[in-house]
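We treat protein structure as text, and this decision shapes the records that our systems exchange. Such a record has a labelled line for the sequence and another for the backbone structure tokens. The record that follows is passed on verbatim for readers who wish to inspect the format:
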Amino acid sequence: MHVVVGTHKIKPEHLDEYLTSMRAYAAVCVAEPGCVRYEVLQDLSDPTVICLYEVFVDAEAFAAHQRSEHHERWMARSAGWREVSPMARHELDFVYP
């Protein structure tokens, strides 16, 4: 399994648009071959902080996700909505189980 955890700070004036668009984008991502989970989490103390938790069967499935047309469109569309992208990003592999 290949896991990516990323935290983004969204500009307050774009938060509603980001969340609406992200819901649609995440639904497409989770339907990709090789995508096990694609979760969007919102910080309770600061709603402009969004955490993405992405699980793919392997690094190649994640790479295919990054090359997809919908990913490229999403990145272009949402680029100006983020304060800093990403605040933190980690690519991880399972140790157990």
